[in-house]
Specification:
The protein is an alpha/beta fold and 337 residues long. It has two domains: 5-226, Alpha-Beta Complex (Spore Coat Polysaccharide Biosynthesis Protein SpsA, Chain A), CATH 3.90.550; 246-321, UDP N-Acetylglucosamine Acyltransferase, domain 1 (3 Solenoid), CATH 2.160.10.10. The chain contains six helices and 23 strands. Strands 1, 4, 5, 6, 8, 9, 10, 11 and 12 form a nine-stranded mixed β-sheet that branches. Strands 14, 15, 17, 18, 20 and 22 form a six-stranded parallel β-sheet that branches. The chain has a four-stranded parallel β-sheet with strand order 16-19-21-23, with no helix packed on it. Helix 4 (179-192) packs across helix 5. The longest helix is centred in the last third of the chain and has 16 residues, at 230-245.
Protein backbone atom coordinates (compact mmCIF):
# COMPACT_ATOMS: atom_id res chain seq x y z
CA UNK A 1 0.00 0.00 0.00
CA UNK A 2 1.72 3.16 -1.22
CA UNK A 3 -0.54 5.67 0.52
CA UNK A 4 -0.18 5.31 4.29
CA UNK A 5 -3.25 7.41 5.13
CA UNK A 6 -6.15 5.03 5.69
CA UNK A 7 -9.68 6.44 5.59
CA UNK A 8 -11.99 4.61 7.98
CA UNK A 9 -15.63 5.08 6.99
CA UNK A 10 -18.13 4.42 9.79
CA UNK A 11 -21.81 4.66 8.70
CA UNK A 12 -23.84 5.73 11.77
CA UNK A 13 -26.91 7.46 10.37
CA UNK A 14 -29.45 4.74 11.19
CA UNK A 15 -32.24 5.50 13.63
CA UNK A 16 -31.54 2.46 15.79
CA UNK A 17 -35.22 1.60 16.05
CA UNK A 18 -34.50 -1.89 17.44
CA UNK A 19 -32.84 -0.28 20.47
CA UNK A 20 -35.64 2.07 21.46
CA UNK A 21 -36.40 3.66 23.86
CA UNK A 22 -32.63 4.11 24.39
CA UNK A 23 -32.11 5.57 20.92
CA UNK A 24 -34.73 8.27 21.34
CA UNK A 25 -32.09 10.25 23.22
CA UNK A 26 -28.75 8.97 21.85
CA UNK A 27 -27.35 7.20 18.78
CA UNK A 28 -27.05 3.45 19.17
CA UNK A 29 -23.26 3.74 18.87
CA UNK A 30 -23.25 5.50 22.26
CA UNK A 31 -25.16 2.77 24.08
CA UNK A 32 -22.91 1.24 26.76
CA UNK A 33 -21.65 -2.32 26.84
CA UNK A 34 -19.04 -3.69 29.26
CA UNK A 35 -18.11 -0.22 30.51
CA UNK A 36 -17.64 1.46 27.13
CA UNK A 37 -19.75 2.90 24.35
CA UNK A 38 -20.27 0.61 21.35
CA UNK A 39 -18.26 3.14 19.33
CA UNK A 40 -15.29 2.72 21.69
CA UNK A 41 -15.23 -1.01 21.02
CA UNK A 42 -15.34 -0.34 17.27
CA UNK A 43 -12.42 2.07 17.46
CA UNK A 44 -10.47 -0.32 19.69
CA UNK A 45 -10.33 -2.67 16.69
CA UNK A 46 -8.22 -0.10 14.85
CA UNK A 47 -5.53 -0.41 17.50
CA UNK A 48 -3.97 -3.34 15.61
CA UNK A 49 -3.27 -1.25 12.50
CA UNK A 50 0.44 -0.73 11.69
CA UNK A 51 1.86 2.19 13.68
CA UNK A 52 3.22 3.74 10.48
CA UNK A 53 -0.29 4.08 9.05
CA UNK A 54 -2.13 7.38 9.56
CA UNK A 55 -5.87 7.14 10.21
CA UNK A 56 -8.65 9.53 9.30
CA UNK A 57 -12.18 8.80 10.46
CA UNK A 58 -15.02 9.55 8.07
CA UNK A 59 -18.17 9.42 10.18
CA UNK A 60 -21.52 9.24 8.42
CA UNK A 61 -24.03 10.62 10.92
CA UNK A 62 -27.72 11.42 10.97
CA UNK A 63 -30.28 11.68 13.78
CA UNK A 64 -28.52 12.96 16.94
CA UNK A 65 -25.25 12.97 15.01
CA UNK A 66 -23.96 15.95 16.96
CA UNK A 67 -23.60 13.62 19.95
CA UNK A 68 -21.24 11.42 17.91
CA UNK A 69 -19.16 14.44 16.98
CA UNK A 70 -19.01 15.70 20.58
CA UNK A 71 -18.07 12.24 21.84
CA UNK A 72 -15.22 11.76 19.39
CA UNK A 73 -13.87 15.25 20.03
CA UNK A 74 -13.91 14.62 23.79
CA UNK A 75 -12.52 11.07 23.84
CA UNK A 76 -10.36 11.01 20.68
CA UNK A 77 -9.13 14.60 20.34
CA UNK A 78 -5.97 13.59 18.47
CA UNK A 79 -7.75 11.51 15.83
CA UNK A 80 -8.42 13.39 12.59
CA UNK A 81 -12.13 13.11 11.88
CA UNK A 82 -14.59 14.21 9.23
CA UNK A 83 -18.37 14.27 9.53
CA UNK A 84 -20.90 13.76 6.76
CA UNK A 85 -24.65 14.09 7.39
CA UNK A 86 -26.96 11.53 5.79
CA UNK A 87 -30.30 13.27 6.28
CA UNK A 88 -32.43 10.82 4.30
CA UNK A 89 -30.75 7.42 4.58
CA UNK A 90 -31.05 5.40 1.39
CA UNK A 91 -28.73 2.59 2.29
CA UNK A 92 -25.08 1.73 2.79
CA UNK A 93 -23.87 2.71 -0.68
CA UNK A 94 -25.64 6.05 -0.41
CA UNK A 95 -23.82 6.74 2.86
CA UNK A 96 -20.42 6.05 1.29
CA UNK A 97 -21.26 8.13 -1.79
CA UNK A 98 -22.00 11.17 0.40
CA UNK A 99 -18.44 11.03 1.75
CA UNK A 100 -16.87 11.17 -1.72
CA UNK A 101 -14.78 14.28 -1.07
CA UNK A 102 -12.78 12.52 1.67
CA UNK A 103 -12.27 9.16 -0.04
CA UNK A 104 -9.01 8.74 -1.90
CA UNK A 105 -6.70 5.76 -1.79
CA UNK A 106 -7.04 2.95 0.80
CA UNK A 107 -10.14 2.74 2.95
CA UNK A 108 -11.88 0.60 5.52
CA UNK A 109 -15.65 0.45 5.86
CA UNK A 110 -16.76 -0.50 9.37
CA UNK A 111 -20.41 -0.91 10.29
CA UNK A 112 -20.72 0.21 13.88
CA UNK A 113 -23.41 -2.11 15.23
CA UNK A 114 -21.21 -5.18 14.84
CA UNK A 115 -17.99 -5.82 16.73
CA UNK A 116 -15.27 -8.20 15.62
CA UNK A 117 -11.91 -9.36 16.90
CA UNK A 118 -9.30 -9.15 14.14
CA UNK A 119 -5.65 -8.28 13.63
CA UNK A 120 -5.26 -5.52 11.02
CA UNK A 121 -1.47 -5.45 10.98
CA UNK A 122 -1.37 -7.19 7.58
CA UNK A 123 -3.00 -4.30 5.73
CA UNK A 124 0.24 -2.44 5.06
CA UNK A 125 1.45 -5.38 2.94
CA UNK A 126 -1.92 -6.47 1.55
CA UNK A 127 -1.72 -7.55 -2.10
CA UNK A 128 -5.41 -8.05 -2.84
CA UNK A 129 -7.41 -5.12 -4.20
CA UNK A 130 -10.11 -5.68 -1.58
CA UNK A 131 -10.79 -7.76 1.53
CA UNK A 132 -14.12 -8.81 3.06
CA UNK A 133 -14.16 -10.09 6.64
CA UNK A 134 -16.36 -13.18 7.03
CA UNK A 135 -17.52 -15.70 9.62
CA UNK A 136 -19.19 -19.07 9.28
CA UNK A 137 -22.69 -18.99 10.79
CA UNK A 138 -25.36 -21.67 11.34
CA UNK A 139 -28.06 -19.77 9.43
CA UNK A 140 -26.84 -17.28 6.78
CA UNK A 141 -30.28 -16.21 5.56
CA UNK A 142 -30.41 -12.94 7.52
CA UNK A 143 -26.91 -11.87 6.47
CA UNK A 144 -24.96 -11.28 3.30
CA UNK A 145 -22.67 -14.12 2.19
CA UNK A 146 -19.51 -14.32 0.09
CA UNK A 147 -19.25 -16.83 -2.76
CA UNK A 148 -15.70 -18.10 -3.26
CA UNK A 149 -14.43 -19.40 -6.61
CA UNK A 150 -12.11 -22.36 -7.13
CA UNK A 151 -9.16 -19.96 -7.35
CA UNK A 152 -9.91 -18.62 -3.85
CA UNK A 153 -11.13 -15.17 -4.96
CA UNK A 154 -14.59 -13.85 -4.16
CA UNK A 155 -16.91 -14.15 -7.15
CA UNK A 156 -20.13 -12.69 -5.71
CA UNK A 157 -21.81 -11.30 -2.61
CA UNK A 158 -25.41 -12.33 -1.98
CA UNK A 159 -27.53 -10.24 0.40
CA UNK A 160 -29.89 -12.29 2.61
CA UNK A 161 -29.69 -15.54 0.59
CA UNK A 162 -32.72 -17.81 0.35
CA UNK A 163 -30.59 -20.96 0.60
CA UNK A 164 -28.38 -22.24 3.41
CA UNK A 165 -25.70 -24.05 1.39
CA UNK A 166 -23.24 -21.11 1.77
CA UNK A 167 -22.76 -20.07 5.41
CA UNK A 168 -19.83 -17.66 4.94
CA UNK A 169 -21.46 -14.48 6.29
CA UNK A 170 -19.98 -11.05 5.56
CA UNK A 171 -19.62 -9.26 8.90
CA UNK A 172 -19.73 -5.61 7.77
CA UNK A 173 -15.99 -4.91 7.62
CA UNK A 174 -14.31 -4.20 4.25
CA UNK A 175 -10.96 -2.98 2.92
CA UNK A 176 -10.46 -1.38 -0.51
CA UNK A 177 -7.07 -0.34 -1.87
CA UNK A 178 -8.67 2.34 -4.02
CA UNK A 179 -11.74 4.11 -2.67
CA UNK A 180 -12.24 5.71 -6.09
CA UNK A 181 -13.00 2.30 -7.62
CA UNK A 182 -15.74 1.66 -5.09
CA UNK A 183 -17.24 5.12 -5.67
CA UNK A 184 -17.31 4.48 -9.42
CA UNK A 185 -19.17 1.20 -8.81
CA UNK A 186 -21.64 2.93 -6.48
CA UNK A 187 -22.36 5.52 -9.19
CA UNK A 188 -23.13 2.67 -11.59
CA UNK A 189 -25.27 0.95 -8.95
CA UNK A 190 -27.33 4.12 -8.62
CA UNK A 191 -27.68 4.44 -12.38
CA UNK A 192 -28.85 0.83 -12.62
CA UNK A 193 -31.13 1.36 -9.61
CA UNK A 194 -29.90 -1.78 -7.88
CA UNK A 195 -31.80 -1.80 -4.57
CA UNK A 196 -33.20 -4.20 -2.01
CA UNK A 197 -36.34 -3.10 -0.16
CA UNK A 198 -35.71 0.48 -1.24
CA UNK A 199 -32.09 0.65 -0.05
CA UNK A 200 -28.79 0.65 -1.92
CA UNK A 201 -26.74 -2.13 -0.33
CA UNK A 202 -22.97 -2.15 -0.59
CA UNK A 203 -23.04 -5.76 -1.80
CA UNK A 204 -24.50 -4.66 -5.16
CA UNK A 205 -21.74 -2.11 -5.70
CA UNK A 206 -19.11 -4.70 -4.83
CA UNK A 207 -20.71 -7.15 -7.25
CA UNK A 208 -20.26 -4.58 -10.01
CA UNK A 209 -16.59 -4.40 -9.08
CA UNK A 210 -16.39 -8.20 -9.14
CA UNK A 211 -17.96 -8.21 -12.61
CA UNK A 212 -15.06 -5.95 -13.60
CA UNK A 213 -12.51 -8.50 -12.28
CA UNK A 214 -11.90 -7.06 -8.81
CA UNK A 215 -9.49 -9.25 -6.86
CA UNK A 216 -11.20 -9.58 -3.48
CA UNK A 217 -10.32 -12.15 -0.84
CA UNK A 218 -11.89 -13.03 2.50
CA UNK A 219 -10.44 -12.73 6.00
CA UNK A 220 -12.06 -15.06 8.53
CA UNK A 221 -12.89 -13.98 12.07
CA UNK A 222 -13.75 -16.19 15.02
CA UNK A 223 -15.54 -13.54 17.10
CA UNK A 224 -18.39 -11.45 15.68
CA UNK A 225 -20.60 -9.66 18.19
CA UNK A 226 -23.85 -7.82 17.55
CA UNK A 227 -24.93 -4.58 19.22
CA UNK A 228 -28.16 -3.92 17.37
CA UNK A 229 -30.85 -5.08 19.84
CA UNK A 230 -31.19 -5.12 23.65
CA UNK A 231 -30.81 -8.92 23.66
CA UNK A 232 -27.68 -8.73 21.49
CA UNK A 233 -26.22 -5.93 23.63
CA UNK A 234 -26.58 -8.12 26.73
CA UNK A 235 -25.05 -11.11 24.97
CA UNK A 236 -22.12 -8.97 23.84
CA UNK A 237 -21.78 -7.62 27.38
CA UNK A 238 -21.51 -11.17 28.69
CA UNK A 239 -18.82 -12.08 26.18
CA UNK A 240 -16.71 -8.97 26.74
CA UNK A 241 -16.84 -9.29 30.53
CA UNK A 242 -15.71 -12.90 30.22
CA UNK A 243 -12.86 -11.93 27.88
CA UNK A 244 -10.86 -9.22 29.53
CA UNK A 245 -13.17 -6.43 30.71
CA UNK A 246 -14.06 -7.82 34.15
CA UNK A 247 -12.69 -5.42 36.79
CA UNK A 248 -14.02 -7.21 39.89
CA UNK A 249 -10.49 -7.67 41.29
CA UNK A 250 -10.00 -3.88 41.40
CA UNK A 251 -13.32 -2.87 42.93
CA UNK A 252 -13.15 -0.87 46.15
CA UNK A 253 -15.63 0.99 48.38
CA UNK A 254 -18.39 -1.60 48.02
CA UNK A 255 -19.11 -2.45 51.65
CA UNK A 256 -21.76 -5.05 52.33
CA UNK A 257 -21.82 -6.02 48.65
CA UNK A 258 -21.57 -9.51 47.18
CA UNK A 259 -19.92 -9.45 43.76
CA UNK A 260 -20.22 -12.44 41.44
CA UNK A 261 -17.72 -12.01 38.56
CA UNK A 262 -17.46 -11.17 35.82
CA UNK A 263 -18.64 -7.58 36.25
CA UNK A 264 -17.60 -4.07 35.33
CA UNK A 265 -18.25 -1.45 38.00
CA UNK A 266 -17.06 2.07 37.25
CA UNK A 267 -14.86 3.51 40.03
CA UNK A 268 -17.35 6.33 40.58
CA UNK A 269 -20.35 4.01 41.03
CA UNK A 270 -21.76 3.73 44.57
CA UNK A 271 -23.00 0.28 45.58
CA UNK A 272 -24.27 -0.81 48.98
CA UNK A 273 -26.21 -3.71 50.48
CA UNK A 274 -26.52 -5.46 47.14
CA UNK A 275 -25.66 -8.56 45.13
CA UNK A 276 -24.07 -7.69 41.79
CA UNK A 277 -23.35 -10.14 39.00
CA UNK A 278 -22.56 -12.15 37.15
CA UNK A 279 -22.46 -10.25 33.85
CA UNK A 280 -23.32 -6.80 35.16
CA UNK A 281 -21.95 -3.45 33.96
CA UNK A 282 -22.46 -0.31 36.04
CA UNK A 283 -21.55 3.01 34.44
CA UNK A 284 -20.06 6.17 35.87
CA UNK A 285 -22.03 7.71 38.72
CA UNK A 286 -24.43 4.80 39.13
CA UNK A 287 -26.06 4.34 42.53
CA UNK A 288 -27.25 0.88 43.59
CA UNK A 289 -28.59 0.02 47.04
CA UNK A 290 -30.37 -2.98 48.52
CA UNK A 291 -30.74 -4.60 45.11
CA UNK A 292 -29.97 -7.83 43.29
CA UNK A 293 -28.70 -7.28 39.76
CA UNK A 294 -27.47 -9.85 37.28
CA UNK A 295 -27.00 -10.04 33.51
CA UNK A 296 -27.76 -6.33 33.12
CA UNK A 297 -26.30 -2.98 32.08
CA UNK A 298 -26.92 0.24 33.99
CA UNK A 299 -25.63 3.24 32.08
CA UNK A 300 -24.12 6.39 33.57
CA UNK A 301 -25.87 7.88 36.63
CA UNK A 302 -28.65 5.28 36.66
CA UNK A 303 -30.13 4.58 40.10
CA UNK A 304 -31.54 1.33 41.46
CA UNK A 305 -32.98 0.95 44.96
CA UNK A 306 -34.67 -2.13 46.37
CA UNK A 307 -35.07 -3.88 43.03
CA UNK A 308 -34.25 -7.24 41.47
CA UNK A 309 -33.02 -6.94 37.89
CA UNK A 310 -32.13 -9.59 35.35
CA UNK A 311 -31.58 -9.33 31.58
CA UNK A 312 -32.15 -5.57 31.80
CA UNK A 313 -30.78 -2.56 29.95
CA UNK A 314 -31.19 0.65 31.96
CA UNK A 315 -30.46 4.00 30.34
CA UNK A 316 -28.59 7.05 31.60
CA UNK A 317 -30.04 8.76 34.68
CA UNK A 318 -32.97 6.32 34.86
CA UNK A 319 -34.32 5.76 38.39
CA UNK A 320 -35.67 2.40 39.54
CA UNK A 321 -37.22 2.14 43.01
CA UNK A 322 -39.47 -0.35 44.72
CA UNK A 323 -41.96 0.45 47.45
CA UNK A 324 -44.40 -1.68 49.41
CA UNK A 325 -47.78 -2.18 47.82
CA UNK A 326 -51.25 -3.20 49.00
CA UNK A 327 -52.98 -6.16 47.36
CA UNK A 328 -56.51 -7.48 47.86
CA UNK A 329 -56.25 -10.85 46.06
CA UNK A 330 -59.24 -13.13 45.58
CA UNK A 331 -59.43 -16.89 45.02
CA UNK A 332 -57.00 -18.47 42.52
CA UNK A 333 -55.15 -15.16 42.01
CA UNK A 334 -51.52 -15.23 40.94
CA UNK A 335 -49.49 -12.09 41.70
CA UNK A 336 -45.93 -11.63 40.46
CA UNK A 337 -43.98 -8.66 41.83
Amino acid sequence: MTNNTLKVVIPMAGLGTRLRPHTWSKPKQLVSVAGKAVLDHVLDTLGTLPSSMDIELVNIVGYLGEQIEDYIQEHYPDMKSHYVVQENPRGQSHAVQLAREYLHGPMLIVFADTLIETDLSFLLEEQAEAVAWVKQVPDPRRFGVAVIGEDGWVTQLIEKPAEMDNNLAVVGFYFFKQAEDLLKAIDEQMERDLKLKGEFFLADAINIMLENKLKMRTQKVDVWLDAGTPEAILETNRYLLEHGLDNSAKIENCKGVVINPPVFIHPSAQVSGSIIGPHVSLGAGCTVENSIIRDSILEDEAQASGVILEASLVGRRAQLRRRAGTINAGDNTVVTL
